[in-house]
Amino acid sequence: MSPCSYYDIDEILAEEELIPVTSNFDFAYLAHLDPEYTHASHHVIGKKGVKNYLAEGTRFKMPLWSIQIWALKSFITLHIPKHYGKRIRERLDADPVSVDLRKRNERYYRSGMAIIRLIHNCPQDNNNNNPTTLVQESELLKKTLLESYTGTRLRRIFDWTLSSIEDDVSHYTKRLSQMELALFQRGAQASHAYSLWKSY
Asked: In the beta sheet, which residues pair with residue 27?
C-alpha cells in the first residue's frame, strides 16, 4: 500500500483479496495455514520439541496485505487468483458488460491493480516455475482491466446514468464494481442536476 493511500478504506478492503501462494521453505508454527492441515500429520520432532510445520511446496491462500513482505523476500511463490485468470480475461475482452464483477470482488479493479503492483515489485526469481509467465500474465491482466474499465463498461455506465432518472437500472448496477458504482452515482447526480436545471 502506498503512503498516500494508508487511510483509504477502499484500498484497505481491496487488499483483503485472497491470493493463492506456494511456500518456498518449511515454516515452523504455521501448519494451520495449510487447508489440509491435520493436527497430528504436521508435527515434526526437533531438538527444541514439537513444531507445527508448513511444508515447502504447500499451496494455500492468504490476504494480499499479509503476504507482501513474504513475496518481496521470495519466501513464497505468487499465483494469480482464478477470477483474474485467462478465462475471466477472455470474457471481459469478449463481452465486458455481461460480466458480474461485483460477484467476484466488490473492489475488482483495485484488487487487480494491487496484485499487478506486487508481482512487478517482487524479485524475478520469486516464481520458481516460470517468473516470466507470471509477469506476462500480469501484463495481460493490466491490459484487460484498463480496457474493460475505460471501454465498453464505462460507456454503458454513462448510458445508465442518463436513463436512471426515468428507468430502474438496478439490475445493471448490481453487477458493477465499487469504482464503477461510484462513477455511476456521480453521473446520475450530474444527470439529475442537469434535468432540474433545464426544468427552470
From this structure: 54
- Which is higher by pLDDT, 165 or 151? 151
Q: Provide the Cα torsion 87, 90, 91, 95; round to 10°.
A: 180
End-to-end CA distance of the chain: 47
- For 9, the grid coordinates are 478504506
Sheet holding 59-63, edge to edge: 59-63, 18-23, 76-78
45 pLDDT higher than 90:
no
Q: What are the two backbone dihedrals, phi and then psi, of residue 59, each rounded to the nearest 5 degrees?
A: -100, 130
How many whole angstroms separate alpha carbon 102 and alpha carbon 19? Answer: 18
pLDDT, residue 32, reads 79
Please state whether the predicted TM-score (pTM) of the whole model is above 0.85. no
Report strand pairing: 18-23 vs 59-63: antiparallel
